[in-house]
Design brief:
This protein has about 170 residues and is an alpha+beta fold. The protein has three helices and seven strands. A hairpin with a 5-residue loop joins strand 6 and strand 7. The chain is globular and about 45 Å long. The two termini are about 25 Å apart. The structure holds ligand GNR and nickel (II) ion (NI).
């Protein structure tokens, strides 16, 4: 299973909006497998298809210590959000940057599984944060968008510098 190249901020491709999955076929299963492989290799606790330039509403997550709790959310819809908490976030598309972001503390989400089954599930803790972070990616939104313009422009400059060094 290949790992897929991850796009980095401020690449405008990260701003694209993903389309709902309509066909639950073998190609979708391959995409999901490749997303997991890419996420575990990175390593990260979540990955959205947009981050590898695939414009489908597909998210993979595993926040477990032992990397044995894979979750795949397809076409996720936020049904409920409760409470607020400010937690430090990072992103595979914004490497080496960690900043606090305010998110809902617990959420209820409707989504489809890789086999097409529809599920409604409640999330809290790190999982709730991660699901919200990944759902943002599907609409072209990044955690740096919640920071001040000053912080975001400093991060942009740092990313552009890092990128030049790796070219
Ligand atoms: O690996 C990741 N860690 C993380 C930490 C705090 C809040 C969100 C995340 S998601 C991130 C992987 C990623 O960029 N997913 O889009
Ligand atoms: Ni991210």
């Amino acid at each position: 299973m290949p790992t897929l190249p991850i796009l980095y901020f401020p690449n405008p491709l990260l701003r694209q909006k993903a389309s709902p999955v309509e066909v639950f076929d073998a190609a979708l299963h391959t995409l999901v497998d490749d997303l997991f492989e890419t996420m575990y290799t990175a390593p990260g606790i979540g990955l959205a298809a947009v981050q590898v330039n695939v414009l489908k509403r597909v998210i993979v997550i595993d926040v477990s210590e032992d990397k044995n709790a894979p979750l795949c959310l397809i076409n996720p819809e936020l049904l409920e959000a409760h409470g607020e908490e400010k937690v430090e976030e990072g992103c595979l598309s914004v490497p080496s940057i960690y900043e606090p972001v305010t998110r809902a503390q617990s959420i209820k989400v409707r989504f489809r599984c890789r086999n097409g089954e529809t599920v409604e599930q409640d999330f809290d803790g790190v999982l709730a944060i991660c699901v919200q972070h990944e759902m943002d990616h599907l609409d072209g939104k990044l955690f740096v968008d919640y920071l001040s313009e000053l912080k975001r422009s400093r991060i942009r400059k740092k990313m552009e510098k890092m990128r030049q060094q790796t070219l």
